[in-house]
Design brief:
Layout: H1 7-11, E1 13-20, H2 37-41, E2 46-54, H3 55-68, E3 72-79, H4 81-84, H5 87-95, E4 99-103, E5 112-116, E6 119-125, H6 126-132, E7 137-138, E8 150-156, H7 167-178, E9 184-190, H8 203-206, E10 211-215, E11 218-227, H9 253-277, E12 305-318, H10 320-333, E13 346-352, E14 360-368, H11 381-395, E15 398-406
């Protein structure tokens, strides 16, 4: 076997979180500081979201997803930075509204801009930064050879001092009109709840000739995929608490062994989810490739069951708030109950539009385990089925999340 390692792969990291979701998640006020929701909200600019779940469960919740899930659309516009400060646009979208914007360009080499929560972030080369006359700070280069020093400027446009005619605001206007005066392509999303990304009667944005782009899901079927026994995944072994951190007890050999086993399990499941996403034939029940060509095997293949899976994929500018709503909706629809979706697991992966040259947040994956965990073949399954469903509802479901951090830009 050849080891394909380079400088980029050595910088890449994966942070794994294990835990238990609350029994009920309020769709109007979902958690923000606890995993996995904290990881979702930490990635504001997402370009691809994919959800994978059993086909039988999807057939049950399909109508609910189509009718209740917010439809997405975003715009592609050409604007200069000075256009953002024009009175109508500035007051409508930045001062009183809430929008998400990201410009074209590559972090680490081009001038790139983002607008989020009223904060305009400018990443510039040293030469352009010094010409603007604005105050910023240097950003890390990661020790890359021949990389020129770069700076970032953050402007909170919602501050009371950010008004036309103010001295500090005039400096920003001068820099945008005389230095950063080029027109660039932006992706635009209006976070107002009643716009679905772009308002129909949006006269303010229409002056910039927006190209409206719908964000419709594409369906991919994965027939006869070997699914490992996810309901037996041991995410709370001896010596670990539900969040995956070591408990305050004396470290023993058994505890270390459990930690290593848990880490191996999570890695194997992550690899398996990636193979399913790629529609790899290696995870199908009919795969008969010569082991000389591929030594991959599905985790716990002896206990894996052949199941038809489906994947829903959205591509575009997707805000974190919408993804949180998607997760909450899936949790509710696949909760323990009397439908065919009962006990269903689902996985969600998201790829980010990286805007940091070093240790950029590349995306994350989330696996929510089945809600009902009655062992197969249990002689008392018929009598305890209802009790197990009630217990599953009260205890909440377990999850595993992976957050990927790496060197997205290496030159």
């Amino acid at each position: 076997m050849h080891e394909f390692e380079d400088d980029a792969s050595r910088r890449e990291k994966c942070f794994t979180s294990l835990g238990q979701l609350p029994p009920f998640v309020d769709p109007k006020q979902p958690p923000t500081k606890k995993a996995p929701f904290s990881a979702i909200l930490a990635h504001p600019f997402i370009h691809t979201v994919e959800v994978t779940l059993p086909k039988e469960a999807y057939s049950t919740i399909q109508s609910s997803l189509e009718s209740r899930l917010q439809k997405l659309r975003y715009a592609r516009v050409f604007m200069s930075l000075s256009s953002l400060l024009e009175t109508e646009f500035f007051n409508t979208y930045i001062k009183t509204g809430n929008i998400l914007m990201i410009s074209e360009g590559r972090s680490g080499s081009d001038s790139v801009f983002t607008l989020r929560d009223g904060i305009l972030k400018l990443e510039l080369s040293r030469e352009i930064y010094e010409r603007t006359g604005l105050t910023g700070k240097p950003i890390r280069s990661g020790g890359r050879k021949h990389a020129k020093e770069r700076y970032v400027i953050e402007l909170n446009l919602r501050l009371p001092s950010m008004l036309h005619g103010k001295k500090g605001f005039k400096r920003i206007e001068w820099a945008f009109q005389n230095v950063l005066n080029q027109s660039v392509a932006w992706l635009f999303f209006d976070l107002s709840s009643d716009t679905n990304g772009i308002a129909d009667a949006d006269q303010t944005l229409k002056g910039n000739n927006p190209q409206i782009l719908p964000c419709e899901p594409t369906l991919t079927e994965h027939p006869q995929v070997l699914v490992p026994p996810l309901d037996t995944l041991k995410i709370t072994p001896t010596g670990l608490n539900p969040s995956g951190a070591a408990a305050a007890t004396t470290t023993t050999t058994k505890t270390i062994t459990d930690q290593e086993e848990l880490r191996d399990q999570c890695t194997e499941i992550s690899d398996w989810l990636a193979m399913v996403s790629l529609s790899s034939p290696r995870v199908t029940a009919t795969d008969d490739i010569d082991p000389y060509l591929s030594r991959y095997s599905v985790p716990d293949a002896d206990e894996a069951q052949a199941t038809d899976l489906v994947s829903l994929r959205w591509r575009g500018l997707i805000p974190a708030k919408w993804i949180v709503g998607l997760v909450v909706h899936l949790l509710r629809e696949t909760a323990a109950g009397g439908s065919a979706a009962s006990s269903a697991w689902f996985a969600l992966s998201a790829n980010a539009l990286a805007r940091e040259a070093v240790e950029a947040r590349d995306g994350y994956s989330l696996l929510v385990l089945p809600a009902l965990t009655v062992p197969l073949g249990d002689p008392g399954q018929e009598t305890v089925g209802k009790e197990a469903i009630v217990a599953a509802r009260r205890s909440g479901r377990h999850f595993v999340s992976w957050e990927f951090v790496g060197a997205s830009v290496v030159v």
